[in-house]
Amino acid sequence: MACDEVQDPQLFSGLNAYWSTGAMGAAGHYMESFVELSMCDVVVSVPSTFSLCAAFIGDRPVLPIGGRASDLSQTPLVEDHLFGSVGHPALRVSIRC
Fold first, then answer.
1. Among 34, 72, 92, 95, which residue has the least CB neighbours within 10 Å?
2. What is the CB neighbour count within 10 angstroms for residue 61?
3. Measured between alpha carbons, how far is 48 from 97 in angstroms, rounded to an integer?
4. Can you say whether the dihedral through the CA atoms of 69, 81, 5, 36 is positive or negative?
5. Angle, to 10 degrees, between the axis of helix 30-38 and the axis of helix 49-58?
6. How far is CA 17 from CA 49, 78, 97, in A?
């Protein structure tokens, strides 16, 4: 997991998740978050160019979250992170073409 705000890691204890070393408040550089997120199976994120860059680097699909969607199983994966995001209703907000 990566974040640009300091988070209490104890809030996520018990989850099958790991904090990237480049997350805010961690010891690393934000570029480490790019690389670490690019090695995930799926990049799950609010609409952001940061997450899309990580997906591009690792050639990974993106699962956009946000809005009022309460069931992520109903949210389709964006396999084509560059061109697929332009047409995606949530992701196109963060992409300016």
1. 72
2. 18
3. 14
4. positive
5. 50
6. 22, 21, 33
Determine the Cα–Cα distance for residues 39 and 94; give it in Å rounded to an integer: 22
The domain limits of the chain are: 1-30, 40-93
Say which residues have a Cβ less than 8 Å from residue 21's Cβ, sequence separation at least 6.
27, 28, 32, 33, 36
Q: Are 50 and 62 in contact (CB under 8 A)?
A: no
Q: Tell me phi and psi for residue 81, to 5 degrees.
A: -60, -30
- Using the structure block, give the residue that is written with the tokens 């209703």: 89
Q: What is the mean pLDDT of each run of 10 residues along the chain (97 residues)?
A: 78 82 73 86 85 89 75 76 74 66
Tell me the pTM: 0.72
Task: Kindly report the backbone phi and psi dihedral angles of residue 33, in degrees, each rounded to the nearest multiple of 5, phi listed first.
Answer: -65, -40
